[in-house]
Amino acid sequence: MAQTSRAAVNITVSSSRLLDDTSHVQLCLRWFCSCVVLVLKNCTDEEFRCRSGQCVSLAFVCDSESDCEDGSDEGSCPVPTCSPGSFQCNNSVCVPRLWACDGDADCADGSDEWPQNCPGVTGQKPQTVCRDHEFLCASGECVHGSWRCDGTGDCADGSDEHNCTAPTCRPDEFLCNDGSCVPGMRQCDGNPDCRDHSDETDCVTVKACAGPGRFQCRSGECISADRVCDGQRDCSDWSDEPLKDCNTNECLTNNGGCSHTCSDLKMGYECVCPAGFHLINRTHCEDVDECADADRCTQICINLPGSFRCDCKDGFELDHMTKDCKAVTGSGAFLLFSTRHEVRKMALGSRTYTALIGQQKNVVALDVDVHNDRIFWSDLSLQKIYSAAAADPAHPSTVIDSGISRPEGLAVDWIHGNIYWTDSKLQTISVATADGSKRKTLISEGLQKPRAIVVDPQNNFMFWTDWGEPARIEKSGLNGADRTALVTQDIAWPNGITLDVLSGRLYWVDSKLHTLSSIGVNGDGRHTLIQDEQKLGHPLALAVFEVRGAAAETARRVQCGGCEFLCLPAPQINTHSPKYTCACPDHMTLAADTRTCVSGVNSTVPSRTAPRRSGSKPDHHTTQTGSRSGQSILLSDALTLSLSLSLSLSLSVAVCLLVVGSMLLWRHWRQFVSS
């Protein structure tokens, strides 16, 4: 059952495709619903109609990749003639030459890795070696050993649930839905002991005399409520006919002692509170602080006696119907996502998308520098980080091409002009200038499988997920200082993470627990917004929707002086915190003046958390990226998402939730893991 806060928007996708022309997406905010995508209309001149009725971009016809769910966009295509820089697969499809003989089968028939096409190369990927506490899936990836035979398929091919014996528990134990056993006395005790919380479901205690139409005698039996004070003694102890209580209106004397409303009953009375108040001490009503719920309003919540009021920050105005904050100005927003070989662009609310960056090998992470209109992405197979101007994405430049192995997470500091990335194989978090000319390993201890990363350059903090054993979410300053663990409980496979700068809340998805959760940037006010295996079958990435215009005005490039090599913003913990600290390359260290660099190995900033055991996890998941701030959330089941507002400083606000689960996403994910 999906669980959402009242301030969140529920979006349901009735089709398994990615917002195609037959999709039905409905947004509901509190008590208001509106259809965003519901109509079936003719394809435009720039679109191709599939035999199934679906519309796709004409640019995707005969591009050797099926975009129609029935494959009709590739049905009647002439045999392609590959360019000199391409390799022609045995089935005539062309792929870039650099993809051939690299150990990954990019041709559907695998011919780019056949021995006869790769002289002197085995054409086989090295055998995956999992650690002692891990399980090797038949599809090649490693998952936690504790996930073997737990009732949920975590391998891409579900092989972790093959050949499992039926779980059994002792007679005094409770069998969880995931196959584990917990003491039977802990069922329905209010505290979940099963990992899937199944021991606390269906725990409604039914009382024999429950309901307004029943009355329980002091002697224990139940009678109909209309038989109370009717002159007939129906209870064996006559407790239904007390002489001093029947036909007496206690509310006539001092309002029954009630602070607000006194309601007379056949026997006795009760105090009733108006809306927005709750009863304390059985007689007095106290105001309910609705603003204690962090998701009550999208930006500002003002508590009032018996009610509350939502307000917006500068640059936004309140939608009086939905109570959401909308940007005063700004152009249409669009979504960037990867399909492994391409970065595509889709206007929000549109049914079509176009290829923005093509001829990629394995794009897994995206982010956007809105200030400079520049896109950054990492390629897992090529082990590089690239960037390109949004106006000229066909001519990318290489930012990082060495000392990098598995860059699964990427985030852009749009104020200070740096990029941050995680490396799950090297178990590090690093920083570099936007052109890659200066770089530094910030954290190299206590990491297992760092995954997604997001930055808050206004307060100089970064946040990341680690799905090692145990999994956690951590934060530190943008210089690696003041490292703190935020989430260590009820977390198993955290993938995407994003930040709402305005409300100061982090959102993340957990692929093992099938949850979307949020927490304050200081670790307070944790909420589970969605827990649903169907809607969040394998969530991988999410992004906050939109850029905060007014806040961006203060996001001026900070040019700190005095550092010989690299200047990094320091976390603003209190009024005495430094504005920045200097850093040196990994093979050097800071001198006594803390500004210049001298020869010697430079240790990373000490962390508060102790190192943990090294771990492993499947490499087929994409990362979260997103815009700088705002309040809508976009989720991806198998593609990397990045949100931009036409790469401008436009905004609109509404805490809204978009769940994108589709066969298209699933297909690209399966294509990735199978290779």
What's the arrangement of secondary structure elements?
Elements: E1 9-13, E2 25-29, E3 32-37, E4 47-49, E5 55-57, E6 86-88, E7 94-96, E8 134-136, E9 142-144, E10 173-175, E11 181-183, E12 214-216, E13 222-224, E14 261-264, E15 269-272, E16 277-280, E17 284-287, E18 300-304, E19 307-311, E20 316-318, E21 325-327, E22 334-338, E23 343-347, E24 354-357, E25 363-369, E26 374-379, E27 384-389, E28 397-400, E29 407-413, E30 418-423, E31 428-433, E32 439-443, E33 450-456, E34 461-466, E35 472-477, E36 484-487, E37 494-500, E38 505-510, E39 515-520, E40 527-531, E41 541-545, H1 549-553, E42 566-569, E43 580-583, E44 588-590, E45 597-599, E46 632-636, E47 641-644, E48 656-660, H2 663-674
Parallel strand pairs: 46-48
Antiparallel strand pairs: 1-2, 2-3, 4-5, 6-7, 8-9, 10-11, 12-13, 14-15, 16-17, 18-19, 20-21, 22-23, 22-47, 23-24, 25-26, 26-27, 27-28, 29-30, 30-31, 31-32, 33-34, 34-35, 35-36, 37-38, 38-39, 39-40, 41-46, 42-43, 44-45
LDL-receptor class B repeats: 373-416, 417-459, 460-503, 504-548
Family: Belongs to the LDLR family.
Main location: membrane
Overall spatial form: globular
Low-confidence spans: 1-40, 547-558, 603-631, 638-670
Total number of β-strand segments?
A: 48
Query: How far is the N terminus from the C terminus?
Result: 34 Å
- Beta strand %: 25-35%
Question: Helix coverage percent of residues?
Answer: under 10%
- Given helix and strand content, the structural type is mainly beta
Main beta-sheet strand count, sense and barrel state: 4 strands, antiparallel
Mean pLDDT: 78
- What is the gyration radius calculated from CA atoms? 29 Å
**Helix segment tally:** 2
How is the largest sheet built, in terms of strand order? 24-23-22-47
Family: Belongs to the LDLR family.
GO cellular component, one term: receptor complex
Disulfide bonds: 43-55, 50-68, 62-77, 82-94, 89-107, 130-142, 137-155, 149-164, 169-181, 176-194, 188-203, 217-235, 291-301
Membrane topology: Single-pass type I membrane protein
